[in-house]
Records
---
Amino acid sequence: MIETYLLEALVAFNKYKTLSSAAEEIHISQPALSRSMQKLEDILGVSLFDRSKNKITLNDTGKLAASLAERILDQENEMVQLVRNFDSSLHTISIGYSTPGPMMEVPSLINRLYPDMAVSSDMQDEETILKSLRNKKYNMIISTKDIKDIDLISIPYDSERLYISLVPAHPAVAYKDQGLYFKDVNGETFLMSAKVGVWEEIVRKKMPDSKFLLQNDLDSLSEVVNSSSLASFASDLTIRLFRAEENPSRIFIPFNDKEAVMNYYCIILKENEEKLDKWIDFVKEK
Amino acid sequence: MIETYLLEALVAFNKYKTLSSAAEEIHISQPALSRSMQKLEDILGVSLFDRSKNKITLNDTGKLAASLAERILDQENEMVQLVRNFDSSLHTISIGYSTPGPMMEVPSLINRLYPDMAVSSDMQDEETILKSLRNKKYNMIISTKDIKDIDLISIPYDSERLYISLVPAHPAVAYKDQGLYFKDVNGETFLMSAKVGVWEEIVRKKMPDSKFLLQNDLDSLSEVVNSSSLASFASDLTIRLFRAEENPSRIFIPFNDKEAVMNYYCIILKENEEKLDKWIDFVKEK
DNA sequence: ATCACTTACGGGTGACGTAAAAATC
DNA sequence: GATTTTTACGTCACCCGTAAGTGAT
């Protein structure tokens, strides 16, 4: 049988055309490469090169061998990739989201239930995450829609109400206890994360006269928010997670509109039921 | 990169299920195989086995790896085959025939022109050899038909006249000088090689009342012929090749029928023109 | 006790690099 | 003289087999 290093040597020579340059490229000495080529001919029992005293080139047989060798090496690399990916998929719970709220909470919950598993998170629009769930790119998604299907498990998972975040001096703070409506603050300028998923569409629609200053980075967003008197958004979920109530520089007031409440569903492929058994029990009992 | 011996080891283990039996099958010690499996896991950075203290089995990742490894080994074997076949095709002139006459003569002529080339000979019916020429299975065919085509070279190559071979006591020997006709010996019983190609059809058609005793092996045919007084066939070509005229136990009389003469054409794919240049010149000058 | 696997250890093959020679440009 | 390839030679890596150890049947 032909060892892989010989195939690599042949492919390198075919690519770089001289023994010296090919040897340099694959970090072996030039005599070593020369010997490897001889050995390959010996194993195959076939002449692969046209040799003159200080020149060596592949003959037709050699070119054929080199192209076949390249295919084998490609396949070997593919094997390594596939095996590593498969293995990592066994040790990873991959989750798709359409809004950032659950994405801040779920990974740590998962981590508590499956301490040896890695968790990967990804946010895309509703349609994309559902497709990727079916593609098995995700093991589960947190959707804003309750999708019933024979091969899917859908469990209600929490809900999230949008809040407005205001400096204490803002006049709308008067609504703190009773809450307010989008129309009450339509026209206000908001600082907002660029990655809020479906929320963006809602606030733009309900407050068409408002301006939204999008910030890509979450850290810089909170920095800007803290040093500015502009309004921004929060939710019951983020307030709880970040203990934001303890921050005296901001007052949070809930929106009362029905559109300000997002109901989430945890959706899992039936075939992943066993893998996520503990998580499913946890969500159902919530 | 993963060396081939590691893939072989993995595939063997997958096949024989225990390290000890697999090791035996591939003629290495069991500890060596154990180490190879560890090394493979190390290279891939992945666990391939479920291990208990004295039992080891492939896990799902391992099964995936084993099946991918098997494909790679298959491809490597295929490479060896293809390269060897290609090389041997470079050193072989492969010729298809539809009759045995030229097959007895051409190889030695070729050999004289191309002393370093091997010659392979094969007899099939007209249709098959033409197809195999186009398939590149043959470099050239000796056909009984003159085929004109854009990608073919067709050169008249010799002709062959059928003779009857008789014991001197046979009454038809009287025709020795003037020749005879098929109808003159219709009804005669002939000893004949089973591999005479298109000749068989001709003699059966022209001498419908004759019986033909077919002999598979050429050597035993000539033995039977020599020890029998039955008629058999020869041709100017075989008489010349075997100096059969010097054999006193047999008289050869030509058939005068036009069907008793076969005109041959040497047909070559244009793309093989260069490879067979010397042969083409030789045939043209004949 | 036997079997199956792993770990430990010493040995030998063979792939490597360095050096040198030969040939071409 | 610089470059390219091959041959020669000594070295070292590493793969192997033997032996020993551990746990399961």
---
Amino acid sequence: MKFHSTVSHLLSGVATAHKSHLERRLGEISLHSGQVFLLMELWKRDGRRQVDLAGELNIAPPTINKTLTGLIDGGYVTRDRVEDDARSTRIFLTPAGVAVREKVEAQWLEIEEEILGELTEAERLILSELLSKLKHFYFGTEAE
Amino acid sequence: MKFHSTVSHLLSGVATAHKSHLERRLGEISLHSGQVFLLMELWKRDGRRQVDLAGELNIAPPTINKTLTGLIDGGYVTRDRVEDDARSTRIFLTPAGVAVREKVEAQWLEIEEEILGELTEAERLILSELLSKLKHFYFGTEAE
DNA sequence: CTTTGATTATTAGCCTGCTAATCAATAATC
DNA sequence: GATTATTGATTAGCAGGCTAATAATCAAAG
């Protein structure tokens, strides 16, 4: 059997390399990829609970918790307990957390250009569509 | 800026979900994804050094070393020192390491079907091609 | 009102990736 | 031949993913 020509194998290789690449490029602005993905979610709307953010990002609660600790140490977010439910915490952006968005956007654009530079305009659209399909498959079937 | 619609973001999400999915399905046959990727390389040709395997898999030497320890504990491979160079070790499959291939193949086919079931035949080909392109971008030139 | 069950955050521990730093052995140079 | 540089494996430690297990709180029955 030709394992190496399967889509699973190919996708895994690209996945690892892409994550690694992201880490390197985002490290230049002193952030880690997991932190950035969480920040992106908070820039959409902060004040949510950890469990909600985990659901949105399709990752497990302990992962959110660990990543959050790093962001708090970096001064980008706060973890506040609110009166409505003593179990949960609400995650808010600090001014620094809001401000760092500009730096992330610039870096993210560069990263995006690096990847897309390898593809034609048509390929970009097709890739986006196919990835969306896969994402829907994974997020859909496993979050239920 | 719409981070969520970038290819980088999309790819990262799919990457994480795919890895997670692989771990779960391979866990059913008591293996981890990293171990399986290393085994696949050894099934092609064993007896190579760690540094060569690392190069082939595009991962760092410490990662190979750790994964290997797990495979040795599982009884799938051996790490032998040979006379030609006292620094290096040679990695060989045990009979169990050869035998487990059958189980992995069956599971891998199922995993592959699950993913490809979401796509048409044309989409599969295009996806493979685009992923190969990205792989070459990240890894440089390496034909399979 | 009390017991039982769900939910939320957290901790501990594992796997897979990384870099940096060691150590031993080989290769290269003077 | 002695010194220096390079190479290969390893260790330590971090990030990001996971599951399992706790503790605390809230909700629901009884």
